[in-house]
């Protein structure tokens, strides 16, 4: 990511992800050790979500701050692909649960954001490979 | 959109990176415009035209005229 917006994104993304890992481990440990209830349990449960929300904001800022119009269009297209994959997956899953074909899972929503990120990344890779195949690089 | 960007760039012995820096865009943008995979916005098209001292129509081929 050579653009200033891309560099800013990386500078914001990695510390936020590190914060997520640290907070997650700390909260899991705290819940197992102290076995809190009530409000304390709610707070410790939701705390790891805050860095994830921050990562989502960082990604949104990247899209808004990227001044290179071609790269910005690419980011938006790939994010849209990720959104499409997520919507299809959740819709299919919902109908499967509704029909009784699969049991409802309390953990599955946690995979929504990783699925969206992976789809976005996959789309970026595919378009990057298509750029290389199109040639013309000097 | 077909264009003469590569020819104009070669006349000045500029690499894609050189042109990208002059236009304040990424090298991927220059490559995408040159290969016709991306059509620049009007502001960027004017910037390109100003850089080469030419009219936009002297750099980019009107797609409507392709069909005629």
Briefly, what is this?
Chain A has 138 residues and is an all-alpha fold. Chain A has five helices and no strands. The radius of gyration of chain A is 19 Å and the shape is flat.
How would you portray this structure in words?
- The complex is a heterodimer of chains A (138) and B (68).
- Chain A is mainly alpha-helical.
- Chain A is built from 5 helices and no strands.
- Chain A has helices at 4-34, 38-46, 49-65, 69-98, 112-134.
- Chain A is flat.
- The mean pLDDT of chain A is 93.
- By secondary structure, chain B is mostly helical.
- Chain B contains 6 helices and no strands.
- Chain A binds chain B through residues 2-3, 67-71, 73, 131, 134-138, and chain B through 6, 15-16, 24-29, 31-35, 37-38, 40-41, 44.
Q: What's the helix count of chain A?
A: 5
Helix content of chain A: over 70%
Gyration radius over CA of chain A? 19 Å
Strand residue content of chain B: under 5%
Question: Helix and strand layout, with pairings?
Answer:
The complex is a heterodimer of chains A (138) and B (68).
Chain A lengths: L3 H31 L3 H9 L2 H17 L3 H30 L13 H23 L4
Chain B lengths: L4 H7 L4 H8 L3 H8 L7 H11 L3 H4 L3 H5 L1
